[in-house]
Design a protein that fits this description.
single chain
Length: 368
């Protein structure tokens, strides 16, 4: 695939549902050729329909799909699904129940566009940590283990793009927590760059996995951007809890303090102290700062126990779904923080848009 050629996607589709509901998908987007691009939106926004169009499972009225120099669909061409080198991971693992894990993987290898080298086979087994399951039938695997096998199976087809349609939605919280580290490390561990399109309506999955975000609403693309830029702008009021409301930054370790087991990391010229977590200088990591873990002061309190204090400017003050609180958006160089404060605190400090303040960060979580 040509390095300087993005993945071009343009689809128009109309559909009338049995209950009289009319749906229209009308999107035009360019997808990065590496990393995880998350398609985010509420149920019914068109996320899965977009994936099905890319895979050739839906034929839109008008469409274009170009990956590198290969055209899978335009005004004259429509490659059917079986001719598209796509790896597809569904909400359910959909493994063949009468076949062992190894036999399921062998089926994928037979469908691969090119022969699968033993080195690549062993690498994928290691990435998804499924060597111990090779002789096990799907019914004897947990939901999370089945999905790890399903992802390995999709990768073994040697796809040019990997589509993942809410692969965690059928799992309980424990199984989700078990499989998430494998998803977080997926792009880092693959030897060849592979574009991944991941569909979800979970902000937690967006925070932990996304490199680039596409936000859909009623069949249209309404926002897109890099994780750090777009996450603070998403509508958090459609979530059931604000416990995980916050921002995520990609950082690099620049200093170690072995005496106190801390590392200093940098993002966009801003610095934070985080737990050492067996990191080395130069290592890259993703950290999350929750809105509930930020307090605001009018001056830099050097006598505070809080190590991380960042000079910011108030960009917005918005109401929260809890009447006692508000959400304060803070500009920090090229980044944005979100603080969840009581309305009483905002009034007492006389906070207003444009004010210079200090964000005191009580906790920073390393998420990969």
């Amino acid at each position: 695939m040509a390095i300087d050629t993005p993945i071009k996607t343009r689809f128009y589709l109309e559909r009338n549902h049995s209950k009289g509901h009319h749906f229209c998908l009308d999107v035009d987007l360019q997808i990065p050729e590496s990393g995880i691009s998350v398609i985010y939106g509420a149920s019914g926004s068109g996320k899965t329909t977009l994936l099905r169009c890319i895979a050739g499972l839906e034929k839109p009225i008008k469409g274009l799909f170009r990956i590198g120099l290969d055209i899978w669909q335009d005004d004259k061409i429509f490659l059917p699904a079986h001719q598209r080198p796509v790896g597809y991971v569904f909400q359910e693992a959909s493994l063949f129940s009468h076949l062992t894990t190894k036999q399921n993987l062998d089926y994928a290898i037979k469908r691969a566009s090119n022969s699968v080298l033993e080195h690549d086979y062993q690498s994928i087994l290691g990435i998804m940590d499924i060597n111990q399951f090779l002789d096990v039938y799907p019914n004897n695997l947990s939901g999370g283990e089945q999905q790890r096998v399903a992802i390995a199976r999709a990768l073994l087809t040697q796809p040019k793009i990997l589509l993942m349609d809410e692969p965690l939605s059928a799992l309980d919280s424990q199984r989700k927590s078990e499989i998430m580290p494998y998803l977080e490390k997926l792009t880092q561990n693959l030897e060849k760059p592979l574009p991944i399109i991941y569909v979800t309506h979970s902000l937690d999955e967006v925070s932990r996995l996304a490199d680039h975000i596409f936000v859909m609403q009623q069949g249209k693309l309404i926002k897109q951007g890099k994780l750090q830029e777009l996450l603070p702008t998403l509508d958090h009021h459609d979530t059931t809890s604000n416990d995980k409301l916050g921002v995520v930054f990609k950082c690099r370790v620049i200093q170690q303090d072995d005496a106190w087991h801390l590392n200093k990391v940098v993002f966009e010229k801003n610095e934070l102290w985080v737990h050492d977590n067996n990191l080395q200088i130069g290592d890259h990591l993703r950290v999350r700062i929750l809105a509930k873990d930020i307090s605001i002061a009018l001056s830099n309190h050097l006598d505070s126990s809080i190590l991380n204090r960042l000079n910011c400017e108030i960009a917005e003050i918005n109401s929260d779904k809890d009447d006692a609180y508000c959400l304060v958006k803070l500009k920090l160089n090229n980044c944005t923080l979100i603080a969840q404060l009581t309305n009483k605190s905002v009034a007492n400090l006389k906070l207003a848009v444009g004010m210079k303040v200090w964000a005191q960060i009580k906790s920073v979580a390393i998420i990969d």
